[in-house]
Amino acid sequence: MPPPCSVTIVGAGLAGSEAAWQIASLGIPVRLLEMRPVRATAVHKTADFAELVCSNSFRGDKLDNAVGLLKEEMRRLGSLVMRAADEHRVPAGAALAVDRVAFSRAVTEAVTTHPLITVDRGEVTRLPSDPSAFPLIIATGPLTSDALSREVAALVGGEHLYFYDAISPIVLAETIDREKVFRASRWDRSLRGSQGPAAGDRSVGEGDGAAAAPTEVACGIDDGQGDYLNCPLSHDEYQRFYDALVTAESATIHDFDRETFFEGCLPVEVMAHRGRDTLRFGPMKPVGLVDPRTGRAPYAAVQLRQDNLAGDHFSLVGFQTQLKWGEQERVLRMIPGLEHAEFVRFGMVHRNTYINGPRVLRETWQTRLRDDLFFAGQISGVEGYVESAASGLLAGRNAAALVRGERPSAPPRTTAIGALAYYVSHADPSHYQPTNITFGIMAPPEEMQGRRRQSRVERKQALAERALHDLAAWLEA
Fold first, then answer.
1. pLDDT tens digits, residue range 182-201?
2. Architecture in CATH for domain 165-351
């Protein structure tokens, strides 16, 4: 009797781990291939699955923003990543942040102990030619090895795109001067609508060099209630800090021939070079923060977010950077409260590799080239932890559907997860850039169309209600 059909997955990051869990949960054997720790990457520190190498924040967790809606949809689809994140969350107000070590260990434990999942450690340098390796899901993430990248590029028939991505520094909590910082969150949710933007909304400022703050959406700027430490800067302190930042020396970037950063997670020094006040309308905006010692908002502020459950590590929110480590220490210690900070991890830059989704993928995360080949995660052209896991969830379910002789499908575009799948497969391929989930890529509810004046709260509520209703209908069908 022939062995049962199985699915092969390359990569055990957020997407690969979620895909493996979904497939095994549907009764299909999985072979999961992961190169770490046999072959290390420039930014991973452990051999655990779904390791978070950038922020520890999964961003907003309420239905009034798109990523919160996406999380709820994933919960209703039985997501392992969401289960582990919920079990190991740390204080972050209305955002979902996790103890990164405990989270990754939980995902690893669940995947490696599942009786239908076989894990093989070792680098994959060539795509398999054996038909028994298909369906195949490539979920190798933004740090796909050079050898496999060349294989993928040859397979899809087009050149890879890439952008630089940077991660934020982390400081030891006990080295923060608590006499100079204060605990507060940017917005009291009960006051929203009269005093500032809702969680996840972009903030556009006025003045010299002011720009939208993309890191608010992608990198988890404060949308909570008192769960952040704030380092206030006066006018003069900000000017000195700014001058030091824009003149600091960046790390040499090897093997890259052009600088293309993802707009959602720009290095702080790149933002600073866009204008002297840009940071004050981005990660250092003081709006919504009141220093209890003065009763006023500071001129600028740096926020620190708890990075693990023990509370002994804090990350600098929105301060991903490519500065040399010595320069990071020198410049960041100019921030009030961090004069004697001990850095557990310095920020760094790495390359993110991804395919041109609209040219390669269908909205089921299958390739246009062949039905039994899937891409998922950041290599597929999405950006963000939640979005990567969501793509793995759908790729896994659809790979299992092929094995079971069923037709792959995607939820409707009225859902967040369906809208993301549609964007990746239907956006303009000539100017494609990875995206986070936003309400903007979801069609407005019919009952809201034609209204010239509609409350933003009403619109988001209608979008969320429709999405969850349509997801339930899709699951039944």
1. 999 876 543 333 333 333 33
2. Beta Barrel (2.40)
